[in-house]
Amino acid sequence: MKIEGATGAKDTKLATAKHLPAPNGVIRTNYRLKGDVQQGYFLQSPLARRSPAEIIMDAEREKTYQAVVAAKRAGDLGKAQEALEAFLAQFPQDMFTLRDLAPIYVSRGLHQKALRTLETLVNPPSGITSTMQSDPAILVAYGEELLWAGREAEALAAFRKAVAHGKLQAGPGLPQVSLRSDDLPSVRCVALIGAGLRLFYGSGAESKASALDHLQRAVSVSPINEFARFYLGFALANRNVRRFKEAVPLLKSVAQAHDPSIRATVAERLPHVEYAARQLG
After folding, report:
1. DSSP letters spanning 45-63
2. Which strands make up the sheet holding 18-21, listed edge to edge?
3. Structure pTM?
4. Domain ranges of the chain
């Protein structure tokens, strides 16, 4: 029997886990931990009744979440790390906590800890199955840490897997990102685009900010990649982002792209983006 778990909600209030019936006897669980939605699968009893241990875990999760939110608002990632590590000491191998710790370790330059954490997410312990191992953002982060460790062949494999699970088209009629070379910079770039687009269409401002970071890094990794420049410009011009002035030069740079869908989309949308940029002064 498996539980399908989703973390994330726009509100900042943490609710205890709610079990919702789903087809074929699968029970869906919502854990509200971050602004973006992630998926996870964890084994539980068929009836999924709340045991005293689970109730205690939910209460501790609530306290941890509030402490992490307060620490991040204060700009103190050290305190956020301490809160998550304290929770993990009580509940080892909690995949959601490991997921939240990984970017904090990266931000603080704790690369060895980040690598070990990401390795656990990508290769979960026996008895725990989790779709986080196919999450493109996690796979990209794992690839980046493998690069830091000088393990290029493993990094390339992680980026290839991220490409396979990434979102390579923002919607019907929009350009479909293609991988035109199998070298490390090209695969890394497309992996970043795929992870960025999946994050962009997640929920919450934190997801949008992370998406833009991935797309900006894609352009940095391969400035000549037309898909990277197009989708960064496309995201910046989104009505929820409204960074039109930054979007204009990126879209202009791919107006004569080799890919016909990029050319057609830019021809249609660029005048509107330029107008919006002028209106904002």
Report:
1. -TT----HHHHHHHHHHHH
2. 18-21, 27-31, 2-7, 38-43
3. 0.79
4. 1-49
